[in-house]
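Module 6 notes. Inverse folding takes a fixed backbone as the condition and produces residue identities as the prediction. Think of it as a translation problem where the source language is geometry and the target language is the twenty amino acids. Below is one complete input and output pair. Work through it position by position during the lab.
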């Protein structure tokens, strides 16, 4: 296991400020933020350097998930209509 580097008080405060400034308010879940911090717990400087890129990726992931959910919702609402359309469009007999 790797140990986190020792940081002096000034650097720690600077990193905390930079990190806090990079996190948008009321946009990311606590769980996703906590996951990012845990993955980077031994890399405080890199964690701060890479946080803006991570925020962009989180936004892209959330947008993709939202789009996929909407597509599934539309598919479920259209399925009964499509079945009815196909049933009515093709004449056939049960005799």
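Target side of the pair, the amino acids:
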């Amino acid at each position: 296991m790797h140990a986190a580097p020792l940081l002096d008080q000034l650097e720690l405060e600077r990193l905390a400020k930079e990190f806090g400034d990079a996190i948008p308010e009321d946009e990311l879940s606590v769980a996703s933020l906590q996951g990012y911090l845990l993955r980077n717990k031994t890399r405080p400087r890199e964690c701060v350097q890479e946080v803006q890129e991570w925020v962009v990726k989180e936004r892209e992931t959330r947008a993709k998930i939202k789009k996929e959910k909407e597509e599934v919702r539309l598919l479920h609402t259209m399925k009964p209509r499509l079945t009815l359309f196909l049933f009515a469009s093709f004449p056939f007999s049960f005799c």
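Reference fact for the lab report: The mean pLDDT is 88.
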